[in-house]
Structure formats: structure tokens, C-alpha cells
Recover the amino acids of this structure.
């Protein structure tokens, strides 16, 4: 594709961008002030006619102000490419000049939310591994220009991107509706339930504030107390709640999976992956293989039954790990063969597959046992002291076998394999995670040994990578030293850049 | 591209054989002064509570309270004294290591080729003794990369210089 666009001079985004920015601004205002709006709408009938006029006027002024602001933002947002750098000028009053060297660019993503889909523009975001501030999002570019920009930046970073949309190349992974259904059925529902409940609780707190301000709390409290008396003894109540929670958990899994992973297609290129997904917000991610720090292949018992697993690609992060959850790119619903292809395209795994799994020293099991039992016993103690009923201890009959079972699972899933250049770490409780790491991508290495571990002559090893820690517990001390030395040797003698 | 070679390495550089250097002795004074600055307000607070707030029932136990407090203080000092000698660092041609800890022994090594930046800083009390700390950052979750506290300022700057030239090589 020849570059028909000139990026050497400053240019603005597509004029449609004003609309995108405008709607985005309105959305932000609504998000901040929805409580106020709610109250306003509710009591609107009480407002006198003149007052209503003032409110209309205020709203109109606000909308006008936002429109002006959107226009100015658009007007002042200029970018160009010069000297292997992406340069961006922005800001209405406070002018910011950002310049990113191409080789620091981690990936270029295309995104489309509903509005952008309707008016046919793409949001292009340029991600770096550096601080959050250098993240750049160009809100509205026509497809061709976006493609051209991507191509120009990509070329200099030594990976050639062929035309993406409209290629007849067969995708590596394509998840249709049926598969997506399978994926969402086998999700970790418990986790999704907790997530959903967290959102609901946050929402209810806001609602409560409204109700508070309306002075209806007493009535509601009375209702709750009343129903408590009737239902607290009822076994059916518990059953209904359980069924209700299950349905919610299932639903939230479905919604989450469908929103994020709808129409997932992944292409395998010479030195990158391209992943397209999303229902309302379409996202297209180009993932350079070289920038992938490590990958984790995960599955759970249900998923294993139908032979699928998901792959998490981890890229370099900055600052706290949790800041950028969206930098973890997940490819759901991969079949075993597809997983093999992806693995093989990233690393040389043949040696690793042949290698022997090394399980942690028996000290590891003892440590987990000791910790969990101390924990459960102290919880039981506290519960007993609070309620002073011996009956509480009956539950232990059920709880302890479950704990035993879980600990056994956890210990069994912990292993590592190490070859000259690769490390594989297995972990998980109910889910199984296999993390693959090229040893030379380690940033620094740490070894820890407590007094108890010293007695058993074992040590923990912690690999710090650019995308988080990888932990190998309780390796025999001699082996730990060997791994430590080998890792340092590998890191210091590999010329390949780690990102 | 260079010709692929993978010679058998008979002797890996061994972390066990490095000679570690202890940090400056004066830093012990710094730690103790800092500890004193934390504990003395607590102690004064306790005395004030004893004199002004506590009821008679609590004051019956005042001697155990004081002794527990003193014991904690003593234990912390004892632990610091013992663990202080375990704080060591080592500089090699291609990496820097730091180890510490009495109950939990830790050793961290950062290869120069992965260092993002190096920082030295002097806290007020350390400055009295002419000491500084050296922090080394790598990419990723940079919360607990390598920090060497309590080396002379001169040495800190020297190491910083050394690392900087190594990075730019």
C-alpha cells in the first residue's frame, strides 16, 4: 500500500472527530452528575415555569460550552511524524507537546465504539511501556489514514504489516457464536459473580444516597426488618438466593464474554498477532511478538472437558501492575492445536516439552498446610468467641475435607520446567495456568529463604519480568543457586533486546 | 546476524562465590536514631496516658504495660543489631547484587543490561553521616527493585557512574 497521506506536516484528525469528542464530553458530564440529573428530573414538575426556563437555558449553555470545547480540542490536536518520532501537540490553554520514538511504541490499537462505528471513523491509540501520560489516543481517523499511519510506524519498528482489513488470509482463531457460548458457559462464574456484586454494591450505595435524601429510609428499613423475620428461618429463602446468584453469575459471565470477545478473530503474522474483538466497542490489537514478555495458557476443568483454553499475552507494564488491566490481552476459546501453533510461533518449545516436570520440595506442602490451618483455626476461634455456639464447629466436618482437597490440588499443579532458554511454570487451584517465559526477558531475580526453609534446605525464587513476577516456591537450595546463576548468565549474554 | 554458537559453559559465574561488601557502619547509627525518633513520642504518649487518661483499674497493670513496651523496643533494637551485619552488596562486571535479612534471607541481582535508571538520595539524618542510598529501577512493577541504603555518598556516586557507563556501552 503506497502512502498517499502526508504525515510530515502537522495534520488534524477527521472533522468528524468533533462529534466524537463532543459526545465523549457529554458522556463524561453525565457520568459525574447523573445523581443531580436524576433529582432534577424527579422534581421537575415542582419547578415553576420561570425556573424551568432557567434550567433549559442552563442546559443549552452547557451543551454549547461543551461544543465549543470539543471544537477547540479538535482544533488544537495536531500530530505529525518526523525523524522516526511520533509528535503530538494538544491542549487548549495548557499546551502539551509529546514525542514518542518509534522503537518505544509497544502497539497500535484500533478501536471503535458505537458512535465511531456509526460515523465510520477509528480511534487509534498508541501505547508505550512508559508512563501513562504518554498514552496517545487519536479519537477519529478515517480507516485509510489510520492504516497508513499504522503502516508507517510499524515499518520503522521492523515489522511489516500487510493490509489487515479485507485480507483473505485465513484467521488462526475465529470464535463464532456457538463457540462463544461454550466459552461463557465454562467461565469462572464465581469470579464474575464477585465482580458483578461489587458493581451492584457500588450502585446501591449511590441509590441509597438518593433514597436517604428523599427521606424514605424509615419505610424501607421497616420493610427489610419485617421480611427478615418471616424469611430468616426459611430454607426456601436460602435456596432461592442460591438459584438467583447462580443465574446472575451465569448471566454476568455471558455479558462479559459477549461484550469483550464478540466476533473474535486472530491472525498470525510473521512477527505479530492481530486480534479483533468486541461487540459495542470493536477493538483491533496488533501484538508484536518481540514485545510479548510472557504468555499464560489457562484452562479449568470445564474448559478442559470441551478441549479449550485461553491464552493471556503479557506485555511490559509500568508502575503498579494493576493499573493497566487492559494490557493483558486474552485470547479465549483456543483449541489445543491452535494453542500449539501459537506456542510454536513464539518460542522454541520442543526441548521444553521433552523436559521433566520438577515439583516443589515437600516443604511447600507443609508450608501451605501450616498456613491454611492456622488461618482456619483462628477464624473458627473468632467465630466461636463472637457467637458462643459450639454448633459452629460442626461445619468443620465439611470445611476441612474441602480444604484438604484444595491444598492437594494446588500442590499438584505447582511445577516448573527449565531448559537452556525457556522456563515453564505451572500453577493454579481449580484453574490450571501454564506460564511460558523466555529466560533472557527476566529483569531481575530474587531468592528468598526463611529460617524454616533453611532447615529444609530450600529457597523461593522470584523472577521479576517487565510484566510482573513469576514465582517458583521451595526449590532445593543447590538447584536454586543453579537457576539463579543460569538466569543471570542468560540475561547478561543475550544480545536480543527484551522488548 | 552473528553465527549461532552455544558453547558449553563449564563454569557459570557463581553467586555463592562473590565477595560481598558490608554497608557502612555509620548507617547503624542512622537506623537507631530513626528508631529512637519513632519510639520516643510513643513513650511520651504512654506516659501522658498513664498520668492523665487511664483509670485506676488500668493503672493497676501499668508496670506490665511499660515492660511490654520496653521489651518490644528492646527486641527491635536487638533484631536490628543482629540483622545489620547481613546487609551486604556486591558489584560485578555485569550485575549488582544486594542481600539482607536475618529471619528471611533475601538476595536480589539486577543485570546492568536491564536497568532503566539509577537514583541516589540522601535523607536528612543520613546526610549528617555523609551517607546516601542507591536505588536501581528496572522495567515492570518497580516497587521492589534493588535499593542499597547506607553507603557513603562518594561511593554511591561512583557506583552510579560505573553503572551509567556500563549501560551506555
Amino acid at each position: 500500500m503506497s502512502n498517499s497521506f502526508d504525515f510530515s506536516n502537522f495534520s488534524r484528525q477527521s472533522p468528524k472527530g468533533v462529534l466524537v469528542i463532543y459526545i465523549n464530553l457529554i458522556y463524561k458530564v453525565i457520568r459525574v452528575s447523573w445523581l443531580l440529573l436524576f433529582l432534577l428530573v424527579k422534581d421537575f414538575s415542582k419547578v415553576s415555569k420561570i425556573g424551568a426556563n432557567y434550567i433549559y437555558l442552563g442546559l443549552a449553555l452547557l451543551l454549547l460550552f461543551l461544543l465549543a470545547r470539543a471544537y477547540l480540542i479538535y482544533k488544537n490536536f495536531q500530530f505529525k511524524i518526523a525523524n522516526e518520532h511520533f509528535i503530538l501537540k494538544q491542549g487548549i490553554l495548557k499546551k502539551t507537546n509529546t514525542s514518542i520514538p518509534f522503537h518505544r511504541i509497544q502497539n497500535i490499537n484500533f478501536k471503535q465504539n458505537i458512535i465511531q462505528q456509526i460515523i465510520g471513523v477509528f480511534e487509534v491509540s498508541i501505547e508505550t511501556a512508559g508512563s501513562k501520560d504518554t498514552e496517545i489516543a487519536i479519537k477519529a481517523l478515517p480507516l485509510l489514514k489510520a492504516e497508513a499511519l499504522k503502516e508507517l510506524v510499524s515499518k520503522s519498528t521492523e515489522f511489516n504489516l500487510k493490509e489487515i482489513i479485507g485480507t483473505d488470509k485465513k484467521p488462526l482463531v475465529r470464535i463464532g457464536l456457538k463457540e462463544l457460548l461454550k466459552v461463557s458457559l465454562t467461565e469462572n462464574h464465581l469470579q464474575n459473580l464477585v465482580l458483578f456484586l461489587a458493581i451492584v454494591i457500588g450502585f446501591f450505595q449511590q441509590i441509597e444516597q438518593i433514597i436517604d435524601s428523599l427521606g424514605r429510609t424509615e419505610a424501607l428499613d421497616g420493610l427489610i426488618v419485617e421480611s427478615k423475620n418471616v424469611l430468616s428461618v426459611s430454607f426456601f429463602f436460602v435456596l432461592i438466593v442460591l438459584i438467583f446468584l447462580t443465574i446472575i453469575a451465569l448471566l454476568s459471565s455471558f455479558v462479559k464474554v459477549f461484550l469483550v470477545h464478540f466476533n473474535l478473530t486472530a491472525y498470525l503474522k510473521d512477527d505479530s498477532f492481530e486480534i479483533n474483538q468486541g461487540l459495542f466497542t470493536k477493538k483491533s490489537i496488533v501484538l508484536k511478538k518481540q514485545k510479548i514478555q510472557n504468555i499464560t495458557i489457562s484452562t479449568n476443568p470445564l474448559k478442559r472437558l470441551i478441549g479449550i483454553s485461553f491464552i493471556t499475552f503479557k506485555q511490559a507494564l509500568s508502575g503498579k501492575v494493576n493499573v493497566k488491566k487492559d494490557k493483558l490481552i486474552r485470547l479465549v476459546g483456543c483449541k489445543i492445536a491452535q494453542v500449539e501453533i501459537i506456542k510454536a510461533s513464539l518460542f522454541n518449545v520442543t526441548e521444553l516439552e521433552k523436559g521433566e516436570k520438577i515439583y516443589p520440595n515437600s516443604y511447600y506442602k507443609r508450608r501451605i498446610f501450616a498456613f491454611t490451618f492456622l488461618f482456619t483455626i483462628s477464624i473458627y476461634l473468632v467465630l466461636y468467641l463472637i457467637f458462643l455456639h459450639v454448633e459452629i464447629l460442626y461445619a468443620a466436618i465439611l470445611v476441612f475435607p474441602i480444604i484438604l482437597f484444595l491444598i492437594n490440588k494446588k500442590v499438584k499443579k505447582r511445577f516448573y520446567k527449565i531448559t537452556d532458554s525457556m522456563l515453564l511454570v505451572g500453577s493454579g487451584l481449580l484453574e490450571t495456568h501454564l506460564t511460558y517465559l523466555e529466560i533472557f526477558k527476566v529483569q531481575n531475580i530474587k531468592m528468598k529463604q526463611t529460617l524454616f526453609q533453611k532447615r529444609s534446605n530450600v529457597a523461593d525464587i522470584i523472577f521479576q519480568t517487565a510484566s510482573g513476577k513469576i514465582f517458583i516456591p521451595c526449590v532445593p537450595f543447590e538447584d536454586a543457586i543453579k537457576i539463579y546463576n543460569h538466569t543471570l548468565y542468560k540475561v547478561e549474554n543475550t544480545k536480543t533486546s527484551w522488548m | 546476524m552473528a553465527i549461532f554458537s552455544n558453547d558449553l559453559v563449564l563454569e557459570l559465574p557463581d553467586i555463592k562465590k562473590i565477595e560481598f561488601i558490608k554497608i557502612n557502619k555509620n548507617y547503624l547509627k542512622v537506623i537507631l536514631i530513626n528508631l529512637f525518633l519513632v519510639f520516643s513520642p510513643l513513650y511520651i504518649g504512654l506516659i501522658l496516658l498513664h498520668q492523665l487518661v487511664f483509670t485506676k483499674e488500668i493503672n493497676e497493670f501499668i508496670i506490665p504495660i511499660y515492660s511490654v513496651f520496653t521489651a518490644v523496643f528492646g527486641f527491635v533494637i536487638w533484631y536490628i543489631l543482629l540483622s545489620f551485619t547481613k546487609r551486604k552488596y556486591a558489584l560485578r562486571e555485569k550485575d549488582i547484587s544486594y542481600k539482607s535479612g536475618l529471619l528471611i534471607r533475601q538476595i536480589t541481582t539486577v543485570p546492568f543490561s536491564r536497568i532503566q535508571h539509577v537514583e541516589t538520595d540522601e535523607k536528612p539524618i543520613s546526610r549528617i553521616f555523609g551517607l546516601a542510598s542507591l536505588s536501581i529501577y528496572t522495567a515492570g512493577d518497580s516497587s521492589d527493585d534493588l535499593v542499597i541504603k547506607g553507603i557513603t555518598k562518594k561511593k554511591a556516586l561512583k557506583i552510579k557512574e560505573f553503572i551509567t557507563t556500563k549501560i551506555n556501552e
